[in-house]
C-alpha cells in the first residue's frame, strides 16, 4: 500500500506538471477568463450600482463574491476543452499503455484548474480593490474564503471532466459552462433574494450559489456566517462526490 501511494503521487505530479506547462504557455486563457467577470463587475458597479439597493454602502463589496464564482465557472470550460483534445488525439491511450495510475491523468487537469482559477480570482480581487473594495476580514477569514472557493472549483472542475470526456465536439466540451456562469444571476450574488418574485426567490434560495455567496460575503465582512457555510460546503462536497463517480465511470470506458 505504501509503494502504491508513493507511485500514485509521483505519477500525479508528472501529470500535473504536464498540464501546468500547457497553462504557462497560454496565459491568455487566464486573461480571457478574467475579462467577462471584470467587465460585469465594472458594468454593475458603475452603471447599475446606483439603482440597486442592497443595504450596503459599497456595492462592489456586495458584488465581489458572485463575480469570483462567475470567473471560476468560466475557467473550468478550458479543463473540459483540454480533456476533449487529449481524448481526440489519443493521448489517453498512450498513457493507459504506460505503468502509471490511470486516475492521475484526470487529477493533473483538476489540480491545474485549482491553480489557474486561483490566479484568476486573485486578479479579480486586485481589480476590485482598485474599484473601492475593502474588507475587514482577518487572515483566518481570508483562508476560509479561499478554502470555500477551492472546494467550489473542485466541484465544478469534476463536472467539467465529465463534459470533456463525454463531448463529441470542441464546442460541446465547453458549452456546459454557460448555465453555470449565469447561475449567480438567479441568486443573491447581485441583489437580495427578497426582492425577487416568489417562484424565482424559491429557486434562488435553494440552489448552491446563494449559500456560497452568502458565506463568502459574511466572511469578507467579518460577520457571523451562520449555517450558510455548512450549506455551502455540503453542496460542494455532494457535487464533488457525484461528479467524481460519474467522471471515473466515463473515463474507464475510454
UniProtKB/TrEMBL annotation:
A cellular component annotation (GO) from this entry: ATP-binding cassette (ABC) transporter complex
Intracellular or extracellular location(s): Cell membrane; Membrane
One Pfam family this sequence matches: ABC2_membrane
Sorted UniProt keywords: Cell membrane, Membrane, Transmembrane, Transmembrane helix, Transport
Lineage top rank: taxon: Bacteria
Tagged with keyword Cell membrane: yes
A molecular function (GO) term: ABC-type transporter activity
Transmembrane segments: 30-50, 62-84, 105-130, 142-166, 173-191, 229-251
Topological type in the membrane: Multi-pass membrane protein
Residues annotated as domain ABC transmembrane type-2: 28-254
Family, per entry: Belongs to the ABC-2 integral membrane protein family.
Protein's name according to its UniProt entry: Transport permease protein
Organism: Clostridium homopropionicum DSM 5847
Amino acid at each position: 500500500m505504501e509503494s502504491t501511494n508513493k507511485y500514485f503521487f509521483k505519477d500525479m505530479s508528472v501529470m500535473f506538471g504536464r498540464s501546468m506547462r500547457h497553462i504557462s504557455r497560454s496565459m491568455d486563457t487566464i486573461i480571457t477568463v478574467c475579462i467577462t467577470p471584470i467587465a460585469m463587475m465594472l458594468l454593475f458597479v458603475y452603471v447599475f450600482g446606483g439603482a440597486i439597493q442592497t443595504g450596503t454602502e459599497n456595492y462592489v463589496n456586495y458584488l465581489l463574491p458572485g463575480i469570483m464564482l462567475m470567473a471560476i465557472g468560466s475557467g473550468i470550460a478550458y479543463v473540459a476543452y483540454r480533456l476533449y483534445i487529449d481524448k481526440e488525439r489519443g493521448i489517453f491511450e498512450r498513457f493507459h499503455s504506460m505503468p502509471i495510475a490511470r486516475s492521475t491523468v484526470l487529477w493533473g487537469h483538476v489540480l491545474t484548474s485549482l491553480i489557474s482559477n486561483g490566479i484568476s480570482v486573485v486578479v479579480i480581487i486586485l481589480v476590485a480593490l482598485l474599484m473601492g473594495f475593502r474588507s475587514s476580514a482577518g487572515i483566518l477569514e481570508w483562508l476560509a474564503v479561499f478554502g470555500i472557493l477551492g472546494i467550489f472549483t473542485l466541484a465544478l472542475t469534476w463536472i467539467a471532466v465529465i463534459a470533456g470526456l463525454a463531448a463529441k465536439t470542441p464546442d460541446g466540451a465547453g458549452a456546459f459552462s454557460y448555465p453555470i456562469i449565469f447561475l449567480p444571476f438567479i441568486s443573491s450574488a447581485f441583489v437580495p433574494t427578497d426582492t425577487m418574485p416568489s417562484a424565482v426567490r424559491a429557486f434562488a434560495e435553494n440552489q448552491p450559489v446563494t449559500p456560497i455567496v452568502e458565506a463568502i460575503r459574511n466572511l469578507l465582512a467579518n460577520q457571523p456566517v451562520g449555517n450558510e457555510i455548512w450549506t455551502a460546503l455540503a453542496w460542494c462536497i455532494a457535487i464533488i462526490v457525484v461528479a467524481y463517480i460519474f467522471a471515473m465511470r466515463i473515463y474507464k470506458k475510454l
